[in-house]
Amino acid sequence: MRSLITPFIISLMIFSITGPAAAEALSDPYMKEYTFLKAQKEELAQRLEKEKAQQAEEIAKARREVQSLQDRQVALSNQLQQKELAIEKAQQKLQDTTSNKEIINSVIVQAKAGLEKYGIEVDDTAESKVDTMNRAFLDSANLYQNLSSIHAENGRFYLLDGTSTSGEIVKIGNIAAYGISAKQSGALAPAGNGEYKLWNQPGSSDDAKALYGREMPEMLDIFVYENMDQDVAYQEEKTVADTMESGGVIGYIILGLGISGLLLILARVLFLLRAGSRVKRITRIVYKEIENGKGAHAYDAVKDFKGSTARVIRATLRNITADREHIEDIITESILNENRALDRFSNFILVIAAVAPLLGLLGTVTGMINTFDIITVYGTGDPKLLSGGISEALVTTMLGLMVAIPLLLLGNLSNGWAENIKDSMEQSALHVVNLYEKYSTAS
Q1: 197 and which of 158, 286, 346, 420 could share a cystine (Cβ 3.0–4.6 Å)?
Q2: Does this model's pTM top 0.70?
Q3: How many CB atoms lie within 10 A of CB 324?
């Protein structure tokens, strides 16, 4: 289009230069050129319209393509999300499958370890682990049914004299058993290595026969065990000597103190019984002599008596003619002199009562030290090794309390008894003085 406008402009310039004279000469070419240019313009306009239409069509087509691409993108995005969800589900399923596989393998290992003890083999080499696990569960259910029931089977067990015999073994699940043979019957205990031996406690023979006959006694003499691998020692009745031996040296010391304390208590009781009875007897004789006006003979009547009461009464009678204040001092002094006799062994008994629990505590400490020494060397695997130190600790504590409690109680009771006797002596002596004053004044 620029190529057509340029000649037109040049013509106009020429026309302006040449003037009106040349205008007519140029009119026809100009008209031709104008017509040509007009035709060109129309053609260009048509072509422009055509181009616009084409461009509009192309734009519409492009828009449709863009829309199509957007729709496809959305569809692909949806497909991508679905694929991602599917992948996530697949991963979760894979994780669950892996976890289930580990659980199944663990169950199979545990079942194999648990069932092999009862002679049940679990084949863990099979291709299907699920089938293996199901068979293990089935075997476990059958084993549980077998172990929770009472059933009899032929077997051998050891008798009390150590000989082996054959007979019927009635098993109560897997926790107890009874043996029945022609020689002996009764409850069975583990003898080690899966064997049985007859338990040495009497009274279970009838239970064994009743269970074998499908009868259930109301009470069972039974021995319950945990496993058959360890030999169970026979239960022996523990004697006092065994208990003392488990207490060790400290236990014997406490026992010696306890025996000494009881002997002292016995001696003190006998002495106080004798002293208490003589108070009444002596005072009754003296009262009778004074009331009969024979106060001078009262001393001779009790001079052959021995003991605290006799000495206090005789001291009173020797000074019966003295003034009141002096004779009361004599009575008080005489009773104080008798305190040593009436309180004999009292302090020693209370000392034993105080020392005995301390010795028991000392035995507890030494017993626990021995226990920890054994744990340090042998560990805690065998409880029998630990029982020695624990027995020493407990037995010494028990002995200490057994000695302390009665000695403390009896010692304080005897002290109270002695105080009552002292009060009775003082009261009797003062009553003698009062009677003497009364009857001497009257005569």
Answers
A1: 158
A2: no
A3: 11
